[in-house]
Design goal:
The chain has four helices and five strands. Helices cover 35% and strands 18% of the residues. It has 145 residues and is α+β, with helices and mostly antiparallel strands. A five-stranded mixed beta sheet has the order 2-3-1-4-5, with helices on both faces.
Length: 145
């Protein structure tokens, strides 16, 4: 496990390696029904410029305040945050997006027995890419089934 060593210097949130550890720990064993999902929230970047530290810290605080008990928040990439939840993913995404400035989008992926943690993260990231191609505030579950 690398979770203890992986902290984002700007937001002081866990980073990608810790996220992968948590996803691996929450992976159900067959034949259990998936109950955990990943919501990847992407912040809008002004005119393609990188986000500043103050914006990232504000977003981290807003997302932290919007979490329900049992949800877990991490920083993922330059402009995204990941929330591992056992709540319904669409409702979680709506709650998290409501806490952020308009223009944020989200990608969703369930944690299943047949998907390794990196695959869950990759699929949620693909959902986020597709969501960003749509209207601001869009949410895309990938894969759709």
């Amino acid at each position: 496990m690398t979770a203890l060593l992986d902290v984002d210097a700007t937001t002081l949130l866990p980073g990608r390696a810790a996220l992968l550890d948590v996803l691996a720990l929450r992976r159900p064993t067959p034949p259990a029904t998936p109950t955990t999902g990943l919501v990847l929230v992407g912040l809008p970047a002004p005119a393609g410029l990188p986000l500043g530290a103050a914006q990232l810290v504000e977003a981290a605080a807003a997302l932290s305040a919007a979490l329900l008990p049992g949800e877990w928040l991490a920083r993922h990439g330059a402009d995204a945050f990941a929330v591992v939840t056992e709540e319904p993913m669409p409702a979680t995404a709506a709650r998290l997006l409501a806490a952020l400035p308009s223009g944020a989008s989200a990608g969703l992926c369930p944690v299943t027995a047949d998907r390794a943690a990196p695959d869950v993260l990759r699929l949620a990231a693909l959902g986020l890419v597709l969501a960003r191609l749509g209207e601001p505030g869009a949410v895309v579950r990938y894969p759709t089934a």
